[in-house]
Amino acid sequence: MSDVCSKIYTLYDTYLETLREYVYREEGTDIETGMPNVLMNLDANLITKILGKKSRLKDNVINFMKTILRKQYIAFNYIIKHLGFAMIRYQRLRQLEEQLQKAYKFYEVHRTFHIVRFMELMRVLTTKRSELVDVCNMFADTTSKESFVKAIMMEINKALFADPCFNIKEGCIDLSRVVNSLFSDAPNGVKILLSSKWYNWKIVLVSVRNLFKLIMPSPDTTYEIFVYEMYKDPVNNIHPKENYIIIDAGAFWGDTIAWASLYATGTAYAIEYDKNAISIMRKNLFDDELARKHIEPRLKVKIVQTKIDGTKPLEAYLEDPMLKTMNGMYIKSDIEGYERVLIESAKNVLFEYKPELAISAYHRGDDLLVLPSLIVKYNDSYKLYMRKDLLGESFSIYAK
């Protein structure tokens, strides 16, 4: 066992002490009563909004939370153990995301899902520490192992301190501090031309290296895809390449396909479920004259409107003859917590073709435990990596 990964054993206890000090310093109140309030950041009104007035579970959760918060001697780990499990058992929270976003402000919904994810992570840290350490040791180099531990720290930071880089001195990029460069400095040849507000999203028109223009959902996403390049591991050369099959699960507005065209030729499968997202994707990839001139000669884009739900194997969407003539394959997955379902549905592809992988690992609290194990389960010759410089808001697991 590496010394790096063994830090996971004390991570929970370290944060407990940090939180106690933080609450005492920031709240100026009794630690045992102040700490649960800071931890949860969730009130009864918000729970009512999210779960609905007629939900029996809503009453259970609210009453349970009130009971716990009234008991001044209840400490941090008791909150995690009880309220965490109560929230997590209600799996339909995730399935209701689209409906909730239409009914309520995006931020309120996102905030609640963020707390659920944090509860999942704390359950893993308190009940499956040894398994988490074992997964950490699956990674191929010390840098990746250090980033694995750092990613856990960032997830805790986001929930407790609203700052993913809290007390992390190196290798944590805070988007809020760098994204403004897109309006002025054009990092990596990427510049925001226009911006406007839609709900809590700031829709932007972006120029990428003067090759094409795209409509993007936010400056943050623009920075993630085209400047930081979150679906690329530059050290281990994991990214789309010449004469590749590219599978983009969670293609959204076509931004990853457009990014892939900077590196790759071949065929790209854009898998997306939302029809509205697909309409914007078509505009980005096919309607813009500059995009057509750059992307069409390089990538043959096939849009697949489907939901990755495990009912069909991934190879069902691919054309067999093409698989035998390509130099390689690359799979990116960013599908809001369904990454494990994607890996399960791709098990035959992983075993037979061993594609390069860039898998988002920040949607569910146990992603860092589950996703690396699944990848290696279906092809134990994979080497796993994480980047040294992690985005505070999101990160990926890479494999080749």
How is the topology of this model organized?
Layout: H1 3-6, H2 8-27, H3 31-40, H4 44-51, H5 56-70, H6 76-88, H7 92-95, H8 97-103, H9 106-127, H10 129-136, H11 142-161, E1 172-173, H12 175-178, E2 190-198, E3 201-208, E4 212-216, H13 219-228, E5 244-249, H14 255-260, E6 266-272, H15 275-287, H16 289-295, E7 299-305, H17 320-323, E8 328-333, H18 339-345, H19 347-353, E9 356-360, H20 367-378, E10 384-385, E11 390-391, E12 396-399
Helix pairs in contact: 2-3, 2-11, 4-5, 5-6, 6-9, 9-11, 10-20, 15-16, 18-20
Brief summary of the model shown:
This protein has about 400 residues and is an alpha/beta fold. It is about 50% helix and about 15% strand.
Report what the structure shows.
The protein has a seven-stranded mixed β-sheet with strand order 7-6-5-8-9-12-10. The protein has a three-stranded antiparallel β-sheet with strand order 2-3-4. A two-stranded parallel ribbon has the order 1-11. It is globular. It has 20 helices and twelve strands. About 16% of the residues have low confidence. It is α/β, with parallel strands linked by helices. It folds into two domains: 159 residues, no CATH class; 184 residues, Vaccinia Virus protein VP39 (Rossmann fold, 3-Layer(aba) Sandwich). It is 50% helix and 16% strand. The longest helix is centred in the first third of the chain and has 22 residues.
